[in-house]
């Protein structure tokens, strides 16, 4: 069998580190949920999800797996170097869902169940990529009779009443998942685990001079000029590679910064990070009371009319976000105000390459249009979806620009656009909506033409501005 390093497995050709591990076996998996009883008989794989035809399990080759020690980098904060070097591209998702048959520490359990090295699993826990529930969740609709039988076995009242940890809880409450934060956390038999073996990575975090991105530091909060290609407060499977974590380290703060609001990973600009739980609650209150005002700069592919633009957004919490110009009962109001729109040169090839701006196939790239926008309602992807619906998608927006191009080529393909075709039944409407969703592309990997250029609150008592947007920096 060939010998592989963790770097070659998870970083795709980056420098090697640590002792080699041996690939013991390959577990078959598919896009669907699978049932698998692991060989150690101490656990059950409830189902396994992977977008590759094969998922890999690894164990040490007898010698102790070693890693380089944590060291201090030039900018003063600690390097985290077990899941490093960070791969330049994310690996296909691999999520393992497990039911515990034998109690014990979480680290030992996962290592045995998935044949993964101890240090790597410890890093997954550090990254926040491992979640648990006291009771396994309801199996998916695609579950086999055997999977359903297992669920019933572990949630039978005669079994649950013997577990002191869930006394006083409903089954639904016991199925709530929590992030595991300690490698020695004890697991009861019957507990459920979700392990993100390939967490989403953010290589941009390691390229940024974070101190230079700090706009303001006060006793209560920090204002950061967030770089594109980063997550404000982390993701379901990665809380390590986030703006909050790296800004905390750059400032040498003893307590981690806390997120108060979000902007998309592909968007840059002003975000407020709270230094205390108390101020986090205070700022959330200001947002609820609409005391926080946000201005954006958007680089659109076509001109946008000045004034208020209104749409209604489908209340489905997945991307892409679908909007309609006409009122639809139950859909959420989306409003933004375009304060100005000016013609500017389309970013040149060097600028686009520097900021990893994707070529989405827009037919005319002589000019773009920089718009200043006052966001009146704060919906996810609102500016991106609304401007695309106006035929002016953002430069580099690989999710919404393909749909805008498709609508230009085939008016009527958008069932909620100006040239929408009347559907005769709910089934026809559902099919048209599903086809429209398919016209959209994937989420951008790094930057799009969008910056949160200013944030203010308390009637302008506090005002903070971001630096120049990426499309101006090399001109």
TrEMBL record:
GO molecular function, one term: pseudouridine synthase activity
GO biological process, alphabetically ordered: enzyme-directed rRNA pseudouridine synthesis
Domain Pseudouridine synthase RsuA/RluA-like residue range list: 221-389
InterPro entries assigned: PsdUridine_synth_cat_dom_sf, PsdUridine_synth_RsuA/RluA, RluA_PseudoU_synthase
Gene3D superfamilies (alphabetical): Pseudouridine synthase
Name recorded for this polypeptide: Pseudouridine synthase RsuA/RluA-like domain-containing protein
Taxonomic lineage: Eukaryota, Viridiplantae, Streptophyta, Embryophyta, Tracheophyta
């Amino acid at each position: 069998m060939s010998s592989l390093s963790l770097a070659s497995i998870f970083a795709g050709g980056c420098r090697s580190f640590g002792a080699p591990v041996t690939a013991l076996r390959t577990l078959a998996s598919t896009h669907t949920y699978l049932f698998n009883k692991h060989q150690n008989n101490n656990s059950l794989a409830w189902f396994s999800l992977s977008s590759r035809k094969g998922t890999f399990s690894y164990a040490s080759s007898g010698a102790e797996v070693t890693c380089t020690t944590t060291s201090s980098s030039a900018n003063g904060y600690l390097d985290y170097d077990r899941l490093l070097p960070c791969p330049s591209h994310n690996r296909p998702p691999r999520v393992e869902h497990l039911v515990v048959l034998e109690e014990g520490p979480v680290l030992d359990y996962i290592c045995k169940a998935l044949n993964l090295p101890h240090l790597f699993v410890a890093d997954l826990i550090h990254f926040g990529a491992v979640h648990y529930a006291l009771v396994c969740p309801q199996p998916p609709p695609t579950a086999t009779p055997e999977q359903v039988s297992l669920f019933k076995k572990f949630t039978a009242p005669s079994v649950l009443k013997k577990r002191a940890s869930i006394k006083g809880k409903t089954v639904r409450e016991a199925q709530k998942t929590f992030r595991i934060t300690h490698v020695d956390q004890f697991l009861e038999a019957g507990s459920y685990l979700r392990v993100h073996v390939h967490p989403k990575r953010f290589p941009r975090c390691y390229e940024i001079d974070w101190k230079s991105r700090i706009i303001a530091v006060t006793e209560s909060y920090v204002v950061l000029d967030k770089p594109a290609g980063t997550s404000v407060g982390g993701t379901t499977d990665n809380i390590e590679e986030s703006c909050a974590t790296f800004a905390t380290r750059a400032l040498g703060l003893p307590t981690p910064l806390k997120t108060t609001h979000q902007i998309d990973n592909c968007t840059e600009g002003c975000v407020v990070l709270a230094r205390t739980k108390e101020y986090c609650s205070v700022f959330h209150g200001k947002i609820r009371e609409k005391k926080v005002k946000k201005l954006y700069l958007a680089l659109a592919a076509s001109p946008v009319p000045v004034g208020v633009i209104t749409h209604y957004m489908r209340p489905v919490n997945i991307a892409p976000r679908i909007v309609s110009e006409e009122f639809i009962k139950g859909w959420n109001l989306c409003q933004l105000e375009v304060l100005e729109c000016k013609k500017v040169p389309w970013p040149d090839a060097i600028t686009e390459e520097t900021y990893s701006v994707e070529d989405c196939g827009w037919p005319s790239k002589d000019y773009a249009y920089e718009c200043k926008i006052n966001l009146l309602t704060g919906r996810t992807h609102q500016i991106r979806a609304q401007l695309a619906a106006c035929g002016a998608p953002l430069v580099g927006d690989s999710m919404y620009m393909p749909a805008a191009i498709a609508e230009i080529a085939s008016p009527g393909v958008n069932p909620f656009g100006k040239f929408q075709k009347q559907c005769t039944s709910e089934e026809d409407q559902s099919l048209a909506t599903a086809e429209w969703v398919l016209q959209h592309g994937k989420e951008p990997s790094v930057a799009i033409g969008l910056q949160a250029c200013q944030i203010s609150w308390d009637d302008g008592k506090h005002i903070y501005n971001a630096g120049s947007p990426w499309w101006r920096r090399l001109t």
